[in-house]
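Troubleshooting entry. Yesterday's outputs looked truncated, so today I'm pasting the complete records for two proteins to confirm everything comes through intact. If either block looks cut off, that's the bug. Protein one:
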Amino acid sequence: MSDGVLVVGEIAGSGLRKVTLEALSEGKRIAEKTGKTLTALILGHDVNTPAAVASEYGADRILTVDHVDLTEFRYDTWMPVTAAIVANEKPAFVMIGASTVGRELAASLSARLDAPLAMDCTKTRWEDQNLILTRPIYGGKILSDVILKGSPQIIVNRPNFFQITRSQTGAVPEMIPVDIPQSALRIVDKQQGQAGKVDLTEADIVISGGRGMGGSDFSVLEKLADLVGGAVGASRSAVDEGWRPVSDQVGQTGKVVSPNLYIACGISGAIQHFAGMQTSKVIVAINKDSEAPIFAKADYGVVGNLFEILPMVTQEVEKLRS
């Protein structure tokens, strides 16, 4: 049993997703503040290596649930297993990274356990023995301080906001395999995603295209994104046109990103789109329309044809890399 912090991990390849490492690092700071333990919960198949990664970021205990049917996230299997473990562990805080999987899991856990939930947290601090959570509201126009009442408090951390810190103690955490009923695992359907693709919410560089792309050929963006290890996003208008999948949409009704560099190509700069990328460290806008609203929000602006400018940028990057 634990009344400390429990972080629900998400596997990426043979390790853990960056947003999970951020959750573990912040979870460790919270656990140290309260004098409690940090527990990592790792669900998946062949989880020994990801579990070992969790130990490098301060986990005192690591719960592993290893089953082939947990290889890919599926609500019908992950949800009951996670809820049962959280109910048994009784942590004071549950931290989950704000990925697509994390958001769905956190909201469902909140409903199932009747637990308070704060989405998209960007900062934590202590005040009068209360954990204060900072999160954006109203499309990011206002930062709100929130105190959750009840237990467990479910905290969903927005990617790229919490510093990743490796453990310096060298302590070996307790590894605890968790058995679950076979009846809880039944895969009815499986869909394979695109392997090797950089996750949009965790990318350090995001290059997004809008209506100015003029069609579904985003190859000029994809070539530059592949070169710099970034991800390709899209405005809602580009998604509505069917040029990009909904999973690539950046904005108030899409994904929220916080990269070090955001390049908006052919995007006018509607407030709904800005709400999804305004926390980017540096914003670059490329648009033929010099009066486009995006220029008022960008750190750097280029007025011109993106199909002429981006190939030149790509060429210069290739020269630098060689």
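Protein two, checking that the full record survives here as well:
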Amino acid sequence: MNGVDLRLLIEGDKPQWDIFVEQYSALIYSVIRKILLNYLKNASDWDLNEIFQEVFVRLIKDDHYLLRTYDPAKSSLSTWLTIVTRSTAIDFLRKSPPQHESIENREIAAPNDENNTSLPLTIPKHLLTGRQKLVLELLFEKDLDVAQAAQIVGVDAQTIRSTKHKALEVLRRYFSKER
């Protein structure tokens, strides 16, 4: 484990914690930065620092419960920390209000418009759930496939398909009533 004694770390040994932070901060920081750059158009240093702190909070929360779950037989500490960091960043993105242009304000091409002009699409704020908005954004704005979206959201591909289907049903019902 490159100089980190996990047993001492879990027991709260300050020198071990300092070594751990020094050795793995750059890894954690780079994973967060990559996720923010990929999924948040205008991420700030504040976002990055919040997630960075949250990773360490998760590691020590509930008497180091998460650290206790680490099994060196299954993966290296670096790999495990990458997964923990990725999950923390994705949870942060799910919880935080979008810092980028939302799908409610996007213009989309009318389906039967031969000239391909755009119409503003106004979706009431509480019509879709946060997950439904995120799934539609990943699939339609980010142009990701279902497997990629499932990995980002941390669910099965079938859950992405189901969420997309339900969101589109809600939108169809809403917009058919508007006519």
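Both blocks look complete. Sanity check on protein two: The mean pLDDT is 81.
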